[in-house]
Amino acid sequence: MNAKTIPIENYVEYVQMVNEIRYKEWVYRGHSRVNWRIESSLARHYRTHRSKFTEKTQDTRETDAIRKFRRAAHQYLQHLPERDDLRSWLAVMQHFGAPTRLIDFTFSPLVGLYFAAVDSVSPIGFGEAFSGPDLENKYNRFQVHAINVGAVRELARQRGKNVGVKIRLNPEESQYKIGNGQAQEADFVGFFEGAWQNPRQTAQQGLFMITSKVMMNVHRFLESITSTPDPFDNPWLIFEFKGGQDMYNEMVTNLISANLTAASLFPGIEGLARSMYLRMFEGAKQLD
Prior knowledge:
Helix content is 37%, strand content 14%. The protein is an alpha+beta fold. It has one domain (4-37, 103-281). The strands form 2 sheets. A 4-stranded mixed beta sheet has the order 1-7-4-2. A 3-stranded antiparallel beta sheet has the order 3-6-5, with helices on both faces. α5 crosses α10. The longest helix is centred in the N-terminal third of the chain and has 15 residues, at 58-72.
């Protein structure tokens, strides 16, 4: 079953639709381009440099990266996951920018919208001048993917049966074969939040999708989901926004009103500074 694409005309329509979805039964991921696929940063890294990373070495390279990070992390962090909690180690690595097999999702449809909309405008190079339709086309279409967690977990369990692997409804860490240089035979994904959360993950209501294989085709897996008991008749929805200046401005204005800016999603001075990009849309305010 292919994803069901739902065209969105305005902010209110999006909010009304996602309000019909049961909280914590669906998770969201924003894409600022409509042609982006759901894939991990590690899969994208391997694909970009495929002449360097052969299929035989992909899992051993991941294992080596985990080992090197885990040995050195104590120099920079006060609180560390348990040594054998490799999913949580991957979460720490992901947080600080390392390529991992994890894919960021959120329980919040508005957080998903934020990450879809904010970076959807193509940059204008120095000396370039656009007006009219050419400028309008710089405001790209963007998407928010919504996935039913229960349907994905049930499919993972069924996929395991097909290859003789007993996978629980929520796959255990050992079934991913992380960190031992081996590849899992079955294609499946799971979701987890980690043993402990950093302030950014808490603010973003974040969780991670984890793939059973580093280079797994997530889209092909999701297309094989067949049903969900939710009011929506498809367990994989794509809310697609038409783009353009008016839609971008409407989304930004409403996100600010909902206090969805970098200041709330990235705790600390970095988030405050980054939030100025959107705060400038509010215009100047009278000083007391």
